[in-house]
């Protein structure tokens, strides 16, 4: 490992409890989720990461606002002057009721504690969204939370996971996000892991739908939009953006059970990873075999992809997808490879 490497971006799933039960959830979060990282463990984790160069802390779950100590966590991050983002469904469970953000929560967030809230909207049509979340009426609650956030001038974005059930609604979701006042829409790639495995034939884009999705993306990115649209490096095979994947370079993800992953795309390795509960984060960052493999591999080392004329632009696609489908990050191609789709 390059000794100058800094862990600048840390993503932490602080709980696997969630009022929803989304079909595609990689964390398999649910109302019955019992795992969470304690506030003492989170503070210790932040202190360790801070010494390693931490600049940004992204909180997810599950639903982060169901963690019993979320307010204490946010206060501590502010004290350390660390940029903080929260991924949320906007659906809060109080007893047997599902409600939007309570006014007391929004008032608390107004104290400069969060730099960005990122809401999940999985369909412009409420039936599509609710079908994916598994909870009837969930989109209405999410939209009510967004309205409260917007009214109080809190910055927020929308994220959307294209899948068979919703990819045709991408333009409508972007229009909805613009109407809601979101700063950005992010399209996040679905990985066949977690709960997605229970119905992947209904969720994962096949060759035909992947081609249609690629066409949508090219059309959207070719024209000026009223809102920023982000496709991260997992979509490199579609966008050929030449973006460098940051997994293990300056980013890590920690699950609610304490396992450490290069990023979200590697959560299919659940149960096989180093864990913060028995190994210091600095030692994992320095010595983990997979993390170092990701740091040291060159594009030319990727089998099949290395000699491809598009390797410098697509960069072999998503390394997590390469490992999932081929057993090794050093072996390509990955499923969205345009040469595979063309055959």
Automatic annotation (TrEMBL):
<keyword id="KW-0004">4Fe-4S</keyword>
<dbReference type="InterPro" id="IPR007197">
    <property type="entry name" value="rSAM"/>
</dbReference>
<dbReference type="InterPro" id="IPR006638">
    <property type="entry name" value="Elp3/MiaA/NifB-like_rSAM"/>
</dbReference>
<dbReference type="Pfam" id="PF04055">
    <property type="entry name" value="Radical_SAM"/>
</dbReference>
<keyword id="KW-0479">Metal-binding</keyword>
<dbReference type="InterPro" id="IPR050377">
    <property type="entry name" value="Radical_SAM_PqqE_MftC-like"/>
</dbReference>
<feature type="domain" description="Radical SAM core">
    <location>
        <begin position="4"/>
        <end position="223"/>
    </location>
</feature>
<dbReference type="GO" id="GO:0051539">
    <property type="term" value="F:4 iron, 4 sulfur cluster binding"/>
</dbReference>
<dbReference type="GO" id="GO:0003824">
    <property type="term" value="F:catalytic activity"/>
</dbReference>
<keyword id="KW-0949">S-adenosyl-L-methionine</keyword>
<dbReference type="InterPro" id="IPR017200">
    <property type="entry name" value="PqqE-like"/>
</dbReference>
<keyword id="KW-0411">Iron-sulfur</keyword>
<protein>
    <submittedName>
        <fullName>Radical SAM domain protein</fullName>
    </submittedName>
</protein>
<dbReference type="InterPro" id="IPR013785">
    <property type="entry name" value="Aldolase_TIM"/>
</dbReference>
<keyword id="KW-0408">Iron</keyword>
<dbReference type="GO" id="GO:0046872">
    <property type="term" value="F:metal ion binding"/>
</dbReference>
<dbReference type="InterPro" id="IPR058240">
    <property type="entry name" value="rSAM_sf"/>
</dbReference>
<dbReference type="InterPro" id="IPR023885">
    <property type="entry name" value="4Fe4S-binding_SPASM_dom"/>
</dbReference>
<dbReference type="Pfam" id="PF13186">
    <property type="entry name" value="SPASM"/>
</dbReference>
């Amino acid at each position: 490992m390059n000794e100058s490497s800094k862990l600048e971006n840390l993503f932490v799933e602080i709980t696997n409890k969630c009022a929803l039960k989304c079909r595609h959830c990689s964390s398999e979060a649910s109302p019955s989720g019992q795992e969470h990282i304690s506030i003492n463990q989170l503070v210790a984790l932040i202190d360790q990461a801070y010494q390693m160069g931490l600049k940004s802390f992204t909180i997810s779950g599950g639903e982060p606002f169901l963690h019993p100590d979320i307010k204490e966590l946010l206060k501590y991050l502010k004290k350390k002057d660390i940029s903080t983002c929260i991924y949320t469904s906007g659906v809060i469970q109080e007893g047997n009721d599902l409600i939007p953000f309570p006014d007391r929560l929004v008032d608390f967030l107004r104290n400069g504690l969060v730099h960005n809230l990122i809401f999940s909207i999985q369909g412009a049509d409420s039936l599509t969204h609710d079908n994916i979340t598994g909870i009837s009426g969930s989109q209405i609650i999410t939209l009510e939370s967004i309205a409260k956030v917007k009214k109080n001038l809190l910055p927020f974005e929308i994220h959307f996971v294209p899948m068979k059930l919703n990819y045709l609604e991408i333009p409508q979701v972007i229009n909805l996000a613009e109407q809601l006042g979101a700063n950005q829409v992010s399209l996040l790639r679905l990985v066949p892991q977690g709960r997605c495995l229970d119905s992947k034939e209904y969720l994962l884009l096949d060759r035909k739908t992947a081609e249609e999705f690629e066409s949508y993306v090219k059309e959207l990115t070719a024209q000026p939009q009223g809102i920023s649209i982000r496709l991260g490096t997992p979509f490199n095979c579609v966008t050929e953006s030449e973006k460098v994947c940051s997994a293990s370079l300056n980013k890590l993800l920690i699950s609610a059970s304490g396992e450490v992953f290069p990023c979200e795309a590697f959560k299919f390795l659940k149960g096989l990873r180093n864990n913060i509960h028995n190994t210091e984060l600095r030692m994992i960052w320095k010595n983990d075999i997979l993390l170092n493999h990701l740091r040291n591999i060159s594009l030319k080392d990727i089998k099949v992809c290395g000699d491809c004329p598009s390797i410098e632009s697509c960069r072999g696609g998503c390394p997590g997808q390469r490992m999932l489908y081929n057993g090794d990050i050093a072996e390509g191609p990955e499923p969205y490879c345009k040469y595979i789709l063309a055959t």
